[in-house]
């Protein structure tokens, strides 16, 4: 009994440590993103005033949206990272998905406005100037963006934060965007001004695609979509490594922010004692928390004689795949 209590305390301590680690790195990501986003915005604003370029204006508009979204993200993350309370028993993680959905809406609106302007400028003669200055500023912005993207990729691997992932989508697209702007300014220096407008349209297309992907993932979280099939198979295979476990039934999963929620039934042999069954369930919980750092696990021990497996109403996911 003492060993079981110690195992339970170890589980709680591990979970608390992982939660603290998640909060620490997500907050650091927020501070870094705000600092770099503001710097890039000021640099691109100076380039817009100097060049009068459609592609630079499109890039500046995207940077403005990035800064706005980063500020909102930072505020929402402070709420999403709050622990569960009496009114929110499963935590506040879905706030990240709500913010991601709003980001998708912002991106879509900005892209549509830029498309309208880019098409209208095909029929106008606009003077693009100070091209070397514009290219230099854009290159500097690209280097700052690359630094941020590398930091965010590392933080996502460590935390799996949807909000940081949403930011990464923006800034990863900014790398391509900055290169396209440099190309557009080069062609503008050769009096091929239509390339500048074409690049602006390409940037808008990428923004629309990013908005679609972001909204899709946010809705998966908000609508409690099941984890991918390969993840469900991984869960089942991990649990079946215990010889006393005959099958996994009624496996249900969902995700909210960093938290993975898993509930299932373990089919066990009829002759196991309550103490032995409890030990098997504890071990199963530890296995799942090893797979998913922020897992909330509910497991019910089901005797074989009462299970769906005995009555042939289910197959294991492994059998279905093979």
Structure description:
Residues 1-13 have low confidence and may be disordered. The longest helix has 50 residues, at 2-51. It is elongated and about 85 Å long. Helix 2 runs antiparallel to helix 3 and helix 2 packs parallel to helix 6. Helix 8 (274-291) links the parallel strand 2 (259-268) and strand 3. The chain has a 3-stranded mixed beta sheet with strand order 1-2-3. By secondary structure, the chain is mostly helical. It contains 9 helices and 3 strands. The protein folds into 2 domains: 2-222, Up-down Bundle (Alpha-lytic protease prodomain-like); 229-321, Alpha-Beta Plaits (2-Layer Sandwich).
List keywords for this structure.
about 325 residues; mainly alpha; Alpha-lytic protease prodomain-like; Alpha-Beta Plaits; 2 domains; 3-stranded mixed β-sheet; about 70% helix; disordered N terminus; Cation_efflux_TM; transport
């Amino acid at each position: 009994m003492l060993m079981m209590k110690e195992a339970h305390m170890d589980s709680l301590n591990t979970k608390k440590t992982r939660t603290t680690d998640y909060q620490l790195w997500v907050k650091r990501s927020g501070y870094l993103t705000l600092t770099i986003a503001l710097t890039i915005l000021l640099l691109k604003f100076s380039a817009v005033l100097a060049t009068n370029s459609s592609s630079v204006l499109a890039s500046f508009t995207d940077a403005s949206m990035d800064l706005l979204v980063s500020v909102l993200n930072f505020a929402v993350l402070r709420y999403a990272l709050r622990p569960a309370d009496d009114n929110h028993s499963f935590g506040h993680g879905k706030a990240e998905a709500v913010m991601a959905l709003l980001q998708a809406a912002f991106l879509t609106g900005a892209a549509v406005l830029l498309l309208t302007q880019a098409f209208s400028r095909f029929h106008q003669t606009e003077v693009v100037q100070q091209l070397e200055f514009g290219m230099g500023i854009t290159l500097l912005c690209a280097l700052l963006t690359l630094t941020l993207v590398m930091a965010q990729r590392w933080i996502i691997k460590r935390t799996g934060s949807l909000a940081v992932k949403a930011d990464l989508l923006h800034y990863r697209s900014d790398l391509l965007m900055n290169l396209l702007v440099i190309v557009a300014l080069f062609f503008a220096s050769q009096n091929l001004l239509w390339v500048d407008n074409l690049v602006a349209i390409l940037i808008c297309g990428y923004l629309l695609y990013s908005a679609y992907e972001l909204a899709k993932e946010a809705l998966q979280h908000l609508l409690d979509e099941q984890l991918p099939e390969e993840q469900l198979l991984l869960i089942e295979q991990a649990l079946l490594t215990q010889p006393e476990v005959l099958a996994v039934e009624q496996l249900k999963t969902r995700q909210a922010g960093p938290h993975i929620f898993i509930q299932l039934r373990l089919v066990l042999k009829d002759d196991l004692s309550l103490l032995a069954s409890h030990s098997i369930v504890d071990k199963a919980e530890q296995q799942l928390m090893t797979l998913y750092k922020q897992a909330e696990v509910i497991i019910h021990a089901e005797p074989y004689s009462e299970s769906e497996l005995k009555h042939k109403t289910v197959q294991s996911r492994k059998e279905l795949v093979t």
